Amino acid sequence: MVELSTFDIWFYVFIGIVMSLGGFFIFHYYQIWAKRQLENLDSSLVRASGLILFASFGITLTGMLIIYVFGYMLISIYFK
After folding, report:
1. 3-state secondary structure of 41
2. DSSP secondary structure letters along 50-78
3. For 26-50, what is each residue's pLDDT tens digit?
4. Burial class for 23, CB neighbours closer than 10 Å (0-12, 13-18, 19+)
5. What share of the chain is helix, strand, coil (3-state, %, to 5)?
């Protein structure tokens, strides 16, 4: 079993934060772009919107899970 250093755990928490914010900003800015494109309603845009929403939601949830797991490790290290 591999032991993680404190630096490794902080790094994974940072990656989780970046993933969470990245998924949110993909969702947010894609919605702004999609509203501008909706003058000509196309079914491919609607399908692409669903795919982008699903992917950005998945990225955000994965980042939150990483933060939860490794954040719990950090709390247990500092508050023994």
Report:
1. coil
2. HHHHHHHHHHHHHHHHHHHHHHHHHHHHH
3. 888 887 777 777 666 665 666 677 7
4. buried
5. 85, 0, 15
